[in-house]
Every structure is written in structure tokens, then in C-alpha cells.
Amino acid sequence: MKDEIEFAQLRERMVATQIASRGIEDKRVLGVMAKVPRHRFVLPEYLDSAYEDHPLPIGEGQTISQPYMVALMTECLGLKGDEKVLEIGTGSGYQAAILAEISKEVYTIERVENLAERAKKVLSDLGYENVKVIIGDGSRGLEKEAPFDGIIVTAGAPILPKSLVDQLAEGGKMVIPVGGSFSQALLLVEKEKGKVKTTSVCGCVFVPLIGEYGWKR
Ligand code: SAM
User: Fold this and answer.
1) Number of domains in the chain
2) Average of pLDDT values for 189-214?
């Protein structure tokens, strides 16, 4: 069993060898990836693999994303600290913790109740008071709290959900995997002067976004 000092060393190595080395430059993102205890968000049987360069199972057929993908998607949002952010797909709660460290408030939606409850507990144990975990279909967004300065979708959508584009603030950024059920393009969607600009960042593989504006099951 590793102690907290060993986990901190693994995090530093993860940032150097998996994240900075692949071109992530935002100092706030590099800092937060070195700070948040990813091992607290994984299942006990994966504790020793928490800082490895791949996703890990979290139960219910879902995954905690690869550290590099978490860093890349976070960097895409260009957060400065005063933003209101929406995450779709809470999963383990790890991405929500990363966002909570570098923005003002985070709303995160998860459709699988067990995962949402577990994430809520870990986030609360770690003292994240600016994160609200909501159980439901995040493909609809969260109308009552919109608009959001940043939206991050951590599950793959068949098309860009109009619901989410509508809930993006002027000057806001959304990052979302869009494509087939086995592979997608990671899209950066920016709203400027009422116009929506979409750029493809890279290819990616995410579990499906299931819901009204996602895949129907
Ligand atoms: N961000 C997570 C983390 O840090 O651990 C990883 C998310 S995992 C790759 C994708 C998650 O999206 C799964 O937990 C899945 O249940 C959830 N999901 C899929 N469709 C959803 C929807 N319509 N609304 C909310 N959550 C959804």
C-alpha cells in the first residue's frame, strides 16, 4: 500500500511524462493535475494503477478517463477562475474535482445513480464545496442554471446537442466528443457574438452519452 508521499510523486511523474510532454502548457491545468488525488476516485482494486496512462473501470460499465484526456479537455475550456462550468458525465467525480480547483462553481450531471452517489461522497470528503452533483439526463443540460461559461461532456454524443449549445454563454467554450459509438472527434465549440464556431481537436474514444440528445437505448 502506497502512502500519500508516494502518490504525490506518481502525480508529478504523470504530469511530466504523460501531460506536459504531450503539449499541455496551461500552468493552472498542470498545477491542478499534480494536486488532485486521482487515487481517491478509483476503485480499491485499481489503486496501484491510478496514475497510469489509460482509463480505468469505475463500475456500471463506465470509466474514469485517461489523465491526458482530462488535462486536454480542461485546457480547451481556458478557465481563469471565475467561471460557472457544467460537466455531463460525473463518473468518478475526478474531472469535476479538477474543474472545481480552477473555476468558481461546477454543476455535474450523472445518469447512473450509484456513480453519482459515490462521486458525491468522495468530493465531499475531499472538501469540494463548489461542486453540485445532479442525477439525471445531462444531454438536456441544466436549463435552470444556464448559461455556462464552460461545458464539458465526458461521454460521446452522436451529434452536437442543441440543448447544450443553447446553454453556452456568450464567449463560452464547450468541449465534447461527437461521432460513432466506438470512436469520436473531440470538438471545441465556441460562442462568439452569437455565432458558433466548431474546431476538431483530436480523435478520441468515449463511452456513449445516453439520453434525449444522445444515443437512445
Ligand atoms: N468524467 C468522469 C470522471 O472524471 O470519472 C468520466 C466519465 S465516463 C467516461 C462517462 C460518464 O457519462 C459515465 O459515468 C456515464 O454514466 C455518464 N453518462 C452517459 N450519458 C449520460 C447522460 N445523458 N447524462 C449524464 N451522464 C451520462
Assistant:
1) 1
2) 96
